[in-house]
Amino acid sequence: MQNFTNGMAADLIPGQWVKSRMSEANGMCIELAELPQGRIAIRNSTDPAGAALIVSSAEMEAFIDGAKKGEFDALCTLN
Question: Taking Cα atoms as reference points, which of 14, 23, 65 lies closest to residue 46?
Answer without folding.
Answer: 23
